[in-house]
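Lay summary. Proteins are chains of building blocks that fold into shapes, and those shapes determine what they do. In this project we predict the shape from the chain. Here is one chain we studied, written as its sequence of building blocks.
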Amino acid sequence: QVQLIESGGGLVQPGGSLRLSCAVSGNTFSDYAMAWFRQAPGEEREFVAAISWRAGSSTYYPDSVRGRFAISRDNTKNTLILEMSRLKSEDTAAYYCAANTRGVWLHPTRATEYDYWGQGTQVTVSS
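And here is the predicted shape, written in a compact code that computers can read:
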């Protein structure tokens, strides 16, 4: 069983920055492809960022966050990171980290590619 625990959410003003972390249990974190998704009230879950296993040499972003958000991983600490900058009100949502432990990762932007999820951390962008 893999456990994911997000942290770092909070209230930030438009234009500000936040750093989200996701602590992952187990000894094989480096073998997992990882991602961040978000969900606003009344909306569907939305893909935010993904990173490949091991060195994380491949990353993926939707146009809505590209250039503002950066995903990274620290395999020595079993931690996934999402650096968010130039935040907008439309970035307000619960943010979830997700892990693909299957070893097959064909569609990084699809929620169905991930078999473990965290409980989420709330990000609110408001003045």
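What the prediction tells us: The chain has a mean pLDDT of 97.
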